[in-house]
Design a protein that fits this description.
The protein is an alpha/beta fold. It is 34% helix and 21% strand. A nine-stranded mixed sheet has the order 16-15-14-13-7-12-11-8-18, with helices on both faces. The chain starts with 10 loop residues before the first strand and ends in a 10-residue tail after the last helix. Bound molecules: 6-O-phosphono-beta-D-glucopyranose (BG6).
């Protein structure tokens, strides 16, 4: 049974784009698990909106098919009462029908005028849907009720288009009503960054430039772009991963302690950190601190992987980046002079997301002759995925007569908890229903993140020479290694 305070209030959950891939793969299975956990009382109703013609009954069958297994009685009752509205997203008649259905479910199920609109559509439809909801009078809450809109990245394509999107959303919704998802924030291990830093007293004193030598963030994927080539051609790794997931994880990891766990207190600190990241403005600075790459055919004879330009939907001469490495600096009191190296890519050798803090070397390593200088620095490693947990790496004496020091590790794994981690979408859907914006991104964070990546994207779009290539299943182009070895450091091999 869900905790009482982690239970949705009465509400109509309206999913736009309900016949699409995101709904079938992520949202419906998450709703089924939330229902099974008792987090969705009978006063929560599901309303689907899409262009595909379907009756309520056909919609119910579609929902039932999207989940593995039978789903249980609570899920069954959510599906049995589900309603469907068919229509174009900019057609006023669609919204008239939606208004009628919502009035119906308020009467029949006691949803109390509360609505959460989940826009699971392609991003180009966010503006027309928001504007239409506003025009139809469906975006403002009546007294005592709530109306929210949930959208998922990309939030624009650059700073200017993000501002345009914000202006369109604002014709209908106040900022407090807009819930922008970054599914990385909903990962258990990312939330654990807050516990790690602020529920313990041992880490905070060393969380600064006095002790930390450098920080590394790796978001590596083994998959290529698969069937998403068309989408990826207009996106690239910088927009797909760095602008959002990487900068969000980075800001939580490095922000100042918030004055409380109030959502705004946390988001205020995140945006302050984002503001402190020194944007790479000058061409010279960008060329020295930002590396892009694109995968070519690679792998093994048994498992030969196509190159990016051979993927369906991709221009054979494409210069879209499937890999990014950056060296960032944070101009604030705590982190000044501590470089932050980030890298992300498709078709890398492992699927792994890790945040590593490498500590300064002790002052007198030569005390241990023969071992010390090539010893890896001490490090705290947060394994966001897979094998979720933490490691603390340090030097220890190897047993024997000689005084040799070797790396040892203390390890914490999430498997030591009995409780299972909820899926990221369960978390975000329930938070949106409850109205907890902590794990959602505020408008100023979006703008600031674009401010960091925009100059680099503009520089790359000017075509500063051919894009560096890397073979599938390798750690990116040689320029990425050079970016860090130049500073006398190296990328930490993911655990
Ligand atoms: C998405 C990106 O936001 O995150 C995808 O659009 C990427 O390209 C995915 O594959 C990675 O998410 P996860 O949770 O599998 O690490």
């Amino acid at each position: 049974m869900a905790d009482q305070d982690r239970r949705s209030p009465p509400c109509a959950l309206v999913i736009f784009g309900v016949s699409g891939d995101l709904t079938a793969r992520k949202l419906l299975p998450a709703l089924e698990r939330l229902a099974a956990d008792g987090a969705l009382p009978p006063e929560v109703s599901l309303v689907g909106v899409a262009r595909t013609p379907m009756t309520d009954q056909e919609f119910a069958t579609y929902c039932a098919r999207a989940v593995a297994g039978s789903g249980g009685a609570r899920w069954q009752s959510l599906v049995d009462t589900a309603r469907y509205v068919q229509g174009g997203y900019d057609d006023p008649a669609t919204y008239q029908r939606l208004a009628d259905v919502l009035a119906d479910v308020d009467r029949a199920q006691g949803t109390g005028g509360n609505r959460v609109y989940y826009l699971a559509t392609p991003p180009r439809l966010f503006s027309p849907i928001a504007i239409s909801l506003g025009k139809a009078g469906l975006s403002r809450p009546d007294d005592g009720s709530f109306v929210r809109a949930v959208i998922e990245k990309p939030f624009g394509w650059d700073e200017a288009s993000a501002r345009d999107l914000y202006a369109d959303l604002s014709t209908a919704f106040e900022e407090e009503q807009i819930f922008r998802i970054d599914h990385y924030l909903a990962k258990e291990t990312v939330q654990n960054l807050l516990a790690l830093r602020f529920a313990n007293s041992i880490f905070e004193p060393i969380w600064n430039r006095t002790w930390v030598d450098n920080i590394q963030i790796t978001v590596a994927e083994t998959l290529g772009v698969g069937q998403r080539g068309g989408f990826y051609e207009t996106t690239g790794a910088m927009r797909d991963i760095v602008q959002n997931h990487v900068l969000q994880v980075l800001s939580l990891f490095l922000m100042e302690p918030p004055t409380s766990f109030h959502p705004e207190a946390i988001r205020d600190e995140k945006v302050k950190l984002l503001r402190a990241i020194r944007p790479l403005d000058e061409e010279r600075e960008i060329a020295a601190n930002a590396v892009r790459g694109q995968y070519t055919r690679g792998g093994t004879r048994e498992d030969l992987m196509a190159g990016y330009r051979e993927e369906p939907g991709v221009d054979p001469l494409s210069s879209t980046e499937t890999f990014v490495a950056l060296r960032l600096e944070i101009a604030n009191w705590r982190w000044n002079g501590v470089p932050v190296y980030v890298r992300t890519g498709k078709r890398l050798p492992a699927r792994v997301t890790e945040v590593t803090m490498e500590f300064r070397r002790p002052p007198q390593l030569p005390l241990f002759p023969g071992t010390a200088t090539d010893l890896e620095p001490d490090a705290l490693i947060v394994r966001v995925q897979p094998n979720e947990g933490l490691s603390l790496n340090f030097g220890a004496k190897v047993p024997g007569h000689a005084f040799r020091v070797q790396k040892a590790s203390m390890d914490f794994s999430y498997t030591s908890f009995r409780e299972a981690s909820p899926d990221a979408y369960e978390r975000v859907i329930l938070d949106a229903l409850i109205g907890d914006p902590t794990l959602f991104i505020r408008a100023d964070e979006v703008g600031r993140s674009w401010r960091i990546v925009d100059p680099v994207l503009q520089y790359w779009s000017g075509d500063p020479g051919p894009i560096p290539l890397y073979q599938a299943a390798t750690w990116g182009p040689s320029e990425a290694a050079a970016l860090i070895t130049r500073d006398g450091r190296s990328w930490r091999h993911p655990s």
